[in-house]
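Ticket #4471: structure output looks truncated?

Reporter: J.K.
Steps to reproduce: submitted the chain below (70 residues) through the standard prediction queue, then opened the result file.
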Amino acid sequence: MQKFKIKGEFITLGQFVKANNLVSSGGMVKPFLAEIKIVLNGVEENRRGKKIFPGDQLEILGKKIVFTND
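Returned output as attached by the reporter:
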């Protein structure tokens, strides 16, 4: 399981996608989220504004990621 450090209180799903270079521009986030299966804490998610907090777990493109703030 990979770790992703959050700077601040939370990160949105759209910000996470852009920060990991999964899309080439911010305008591509919404179509990307509509096409790719993403599971956040066991629930399928596709809202780019969904807030992700430390301790949350995400599954995307076959990877499992846990979010931390330390």
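Triage note (M.O.): checked the attachment and the full token line is present. The chain has a mean pLDDT of 94.
Status: closed, working as intended.
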